[in-house]
Amino acid sequence: MISFQMEVNHLRIAPLTRKNSFPSARKFSGLDFRKEFKGSVLERKAKNQRGIISAIIGRISDWTGLSRKTPRRHNLVSDSQSDDVQCPINEFPCEILVEIFSKLDRTSAVKCREVCSKWKVIVEDSTSLRESLLTTKTLSRLCIRGVPKKESGGKKMVEMRWIDYDTQSCKAIIIPYPLNINTNPLFFAFSLFEIQRIIIQDLAFTDEIVHFLRTNLHSCPSLSPVQLTLNNLDFSAAKSLTLHHLLAAVGKSLEVIEIQSAYGIRPLDFTDAHVSQLDVNKIRRLVVDKIRLSGCTNRSLLLGDHSLRLFISANNFPTLVLDRCNVTTAVVCDYSQEWLDSAQFDENAVHRHQVCTVKRCHRVKASHFEDECSKRRLNCRRSSVTRTTTIYNIQSEHGHDEFTFALCPVPVEEKKEEMTN
């Protein structure tokens, strides 16, 4: 017991010391390696190696476009003035650069715009380059459509596609909302095109879309499209003047105008006033089909007899498809009779068959149409009768020309709603 107590007292008194793993290094305890390394040859050598490595990484980053300081070269539309000054070739006079660019092909000359701001100005403003290389090109179709959210990652975007039938080529760009003219400049591209057909589909028809399109179309050297198609558009955000603004830019040259599968449309969105903006002597086809009117008491567009009388007075009878319009039975019969008379006395006429389709128009009824034809001494016979459509073949008394009239009556459900209201 006494020996155990002595051992405990010894442990309490003896200090704890840390075991030295390297006893031979005690004599070097006063040596500071940092002081010895600073300013030595080893430090300078390490700095040179780090400089070479960082320079190589910087070159690779600039080339691949991963550098934060230097943007990717092919994404630039114009460079800063400092880049222009640093480029030795920009010390040449503009005349020499124009002469050099004139030796290039069309594609290479257009890509020169992306090098720097000076080259961009030279390519866009040089008259000699436009006459030799950058001549206008006829574009078969300009298609503008809304990109589905599944394809755009939930973002609101618009696709603009250029289609050329002759070369069987197609190019497209994606433009994000908002459609700002300053951030999305397309003036140079439109200045090289003569557009034949404009097709707008699968988006909301708003003033923003029309303003963006009109501003770019004004850059075209000759704006005379022959077709305007509005397909599957949402008119709920459109104003009564939205379509007026678009027709003011392209209406006088149109031969075909089509409004199909429009929804959210109101009676004032397409009226006789819109047809008055067109050149009625040029129109070959007018289509208003599969439209869905927004909730309102008036279930018809204010497109009616006045438009048909405009075509009759111009002695021009386009193919008509009128859905939920405000035409009447008497004027439709006048339209068919006038066409038969004009075809009979036109010796140069080759096409002697015409079609008019009237769908879900409340003021046109089958029984009234047959009575009106008998009053005008027109041979009217039913060639086909189905549940939804009645087709009439109409001929004059002494003529061989034929006018086909297709009538789709108002659905029974809508008639019941009208009677209850």
What this model shows, in words?
It is a single chain. The chain is of the alpha/beta class. The chain has three domains: 75-132, no CATH class; 136-321, no CATH class; 328-421, 2,3-Dihydroxybiphenyl 1,2-Dioxygenase, domain 1, CATH 3.10.180. Helices cover 37% and strands 20% of the residues. The protein is built from 17 helices and 16 strands. The chain has helices at 2-13, 33-37, 41-64, 81-86, 94-101, 106-111, 117-125, 127-132, 149-152, 187-190, 207-217, 242-250, 272-276, 305-313, 329-345, 366-375, 412-420, and strands spanning 137-139, 141-146, 157-164, 169-176, 193-195, 197-201, 227-231, 256-260, 263-265, 285-289, 292-293, 319-323, 353-359, 379-385, 390-395, 402-408. The strands form three sheets. Strands 4-3-2-6-7-8-10-12-13-16-15-14 form a twelve-stranded mixed β-sheet, covered by helices on one side. A two-stranded parallel sheet has the order 1-5. Strands 9-11 form a two-stranded parallel sheet. The longest helix is centred in the first third of the chain and has 24 residues, at 41-64. It is elongated and about 115 Å long. The model is unreliable at 63-85 (pLDDT under 50). Pfam families: F-box-like. This is F-box domain-containing protein. InterPro entries: F-box-like_dom_sf, F-box_dom. It comes from Pristionchus pacificus (Parasitic nematode worm).
